[in-house]
Amino acid sequence: MLLNHLLKGIRCETVGDLHGGSRHGELRLTGWAADQWLKRLDVDEQEIPAWRTKLLDQEPRLDDTNSLPGRL
Questions:
Q1: Distance CA 61, CA 10 (A)
Q2: In the beta sheet, which residues pair with residue 30?
């Protein structure tokens, strides 16, 4: 959510097709479905602080048990 929010300003609004031609009948994201896939992580501006809090609460803090020796 957070990275998507940062990149939203430079993201294309429409892409047409995300996949090339199908050789064996695979499902493809084309047209409207491809555009919706790009927007799948869009949230309202007011929700960003809540997502940031969720991320910071769930990520472990760096300490000697989860970092390379001598790197902290």
A1: 31
A2: 17
Residue 45 and residue 20: Cα distance in Å, rounded? 33
| 51 has pLDDT over 70 | yes
Contact assessment for residue 36 and residue 70, using Cβ atoms and an 8 Å cutoff: no
pTM above 0.90, yes or no: no
Length of the chain: 72
Please compute the mean of the pLDDT values over residues 50-64 and round it to a whole number: 85
Task: Say how far apart CA 56 and CA 23 lie, in whole Å.
Answer: 43
E-strand spans in the chain?
A: none
Distance of alpha carbon 43 from alpha carbon 55, whole angstroms: 15
